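Sequence in, structure out. Go.
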Amino acid sequence: MVKPATSKYQLSELALYFLKLGTWGFGGPVALVGYMHRDLVEQKQWLTEEEYKEGLALAQLAPGPLAAQLGIYIGFVHYGLLGATLTGLAFVLPSFAMVVLLGMIYQLYSGLTWMRDVFYGVGAAVIGIIAIGAYKLTLKSVGKLTVSAVKTNWLLWLFYGAAIVITVITQQEQILLFVGCGLLYMAVKAPPLWMKKRTTLPALLLTGIGFWNFSKDTLVQIGLFFLKAGTFVFGSGLAIVPFLHAGVVNDYHWLTENQFVDSVAVAMITPGPVVITVGFIGYLVSGFPGAAVAALATFLPCFLFTVILAPYFKKIAKNASIKAFVDGITAAVIGALVGSVIIIATRSIIDIPTAVIAVGSVLLLAYVKKIKEPQLIGTAAVLGIIIKNLL
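Output:
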């Protein structure tokens, strides 16, 4: 494919970046979208701030995992369908391979006590990582934390604060809130002609490890269930967890309560999108075929939504009214992500040691430029094992 004149990078470079992000990118959706902004907008300057914001808004409006959708959109920006496909695969495959490997270990040893010890430390460090990411996104997308900046963008800050509160209270991200904030900001800042005329609003839119243990009927059930999860669940990896619990534990009885908790722990201590937990769940239910079907069914809808909507969304995104709409949505989206950080913190920071690890992670990332997230995660994992065995 011929490299577009507007592109500052080769497609192979972008695919390699997402392969690395999928391999080393810890912290869930909040951290991952923050890494993409830091690396691709601020440091490499492969994307403009506007392109990133367009992608973030579209990713939040469409169903499916937030970070994977944003990655697919970024691939689409300069390299179309091929770019979207390669970046999506590069981003998801490393963590998929890891959860399949962990599924094999789980089947062999029938428990993850050591993993819970690891997660004790990792979960706290993750809070520090995603808190820094959310802070940077807030500065870039909503505004600086100064009196004058807040006065200037008071409406965006109102959306931001409302999204934090509503996300914390409801424990999930609200698509109607995002759309409502976008429409209200568009009406205030750059109302389109149909708003000025007060016309009617348009409608929106292997043996011993269970590797080959599966049945065709179960695979069909897995495919349909996870296709529904990928199609109708909006927001970050956190949003899909209650939906998965209801189906996997309560409706189909594929996993026990403890097995489901273990599957969420696996997602949090592996890099890449949190939603990759579907691969681990699929493996426990029907081996590698179950893992493959679950992952494909979950990520396929977000891929299709992104590549189908992206061309039209990008064309209209330069319109002043649409830009205001995107700005309003973005403020609410970042607020919802901050709300997600608070929710995760309430579950991961459970005592003084975890609080110290979380605060220490924030300080290290803020003031020690040479430290990288994987180093922080590795250190936290070791600390978790040591602390749990001493307590």
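Check: Residues 34 and 133 are 5 Å apart (CA to CA). DSSP finds 16 helices and no strands in the chain.
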